[in-house]
Design a protein that fits this description.
single chain, 287 residues, alpha/beta, Rossmann fold, 2 domains, four-stranded parallel sheet, globular
């Protein structure tokens, strides 16, 4: 018999990628149960603890639970009271993305009640409002493919016993909207834009010429140093609140040059400080 070392609740909006996230957790060694009523979570924990095969459990709970959803928070609190490390992964996406995905799947929304698809999403968002406010990790999958989502999930849960802070540094373009899942957002549009340099325009922040140009600008290194200090300042507080995953978003106009170059540079600094860091370029390639 084993004691449960980690419990992950996977929840969020229909079409946001709960199933894909669950598959990644399964590959990481979690025993995964889909669509489990919250009242049965304690029984599921007891069953997994009797198994010698895994000490990690992930449960997908969503709008299909409907009337059972009210007891979810209480079930999680009971687990925490018994010393089980409990994390909530919440997945969401923009309304137009959710609608497009659901229409492509040719399935009605479980809460649409024979009405419009958006009515179902509105009911679902209200149902999930309480649990979203308690989520440890919120991921906006609007502009993520299945591989990028997998990277985010692995970065957060691959080594739950390692301790310390883990970070995801995301580049993005303001023209495509703010990332709603970021803990910290910085605007890099104060730096000169390589787009207006003819030889740099077709390149990206992953190219050496662009990276050198961006980092040679006045205040670029000062920004990296001060932002690194801000993360260091917050780290103890995050860990004290049992928050181990931090999403840092660095934005420029289109998410191609400045934000990409500076995200790579900032990630290098964090890794040098021993922070397990993933880099995601949300909007690179969209132009």
């Amino acid at each position: 018999m084993t004691s449960l070392s980690q419990f992950v609740l996977v929840t969020g909006m229909t079409g946001a990628g709960r199933g894909s996230a669950a598959k990644v957790l399964e590959k990481l060694g979690y025993f995964v149960i889909d669509n489990l009523p919250p009242d049965l979570i304690s029984a599921a924990v007891a069953t997994v603890e009797k198994s010698p095969d895994s000490d990690r459990l992930a449960v997908v709970v969503d709008a299909r639970s409907r009337e059972f959803f009210g007891g979810l928070v209480e079930s999680l609190e009971k687990l925490r009271d018994h010393g089980v490390i409990t994390k909530i992964l919440y997945l969401e996406a923009a309304d137009e993305v959710l609608v497009r995905r659901q229409e492509a799947a040719r399935r009605p929304h479980p809460l649409s009640l024979e009405g419009r698809l958006m009515d179902g999403f509105d009911r679902e968002r209200e149902l999930l409002r309480r649990i979203r406010g308690r989520a440890d990790i919120v991921v906006d999958t609007s502009n993520l493919n299945v591989h990028q989502l997998g990277q985010r999930v692995r970065a957060a849960f691959e080594d739950p016993d390692s301790g310390g802070l883990r970070a995801s540094v995301m580049s993005f373009g303001f023209k495509y909207g703010l990332p709603i899942d970021a803990d910290m957002v910085a605007d890099l549009r104060f730096l000169p834009n390589p787009f207006w340099v003819d030889e740099l325009r077709p390149l990206s922040g992953l190219d050496t010429a662009v990276r050198d140009y961006v980092r040679s600008q006045p205040r670029a290194e000062e920004f990296l140093e001060q932002y690194e200090g801000l993360v260091a300042l917050l780290t103890d507080g995050y860990l004290a609140e049992d928050k181990h995953f931090l999403t840092i978003a660095l934005g420029c106009t289109g998410g191609r040059h400045r934000s990409v170059a500076m995200s790579e540079a900032f990630a290098e600094r964090l890794r040098a400080q021993g922070v397990n860091t993933l880099v995601v370029h949300r909007d690179l390639g969209r132009e």
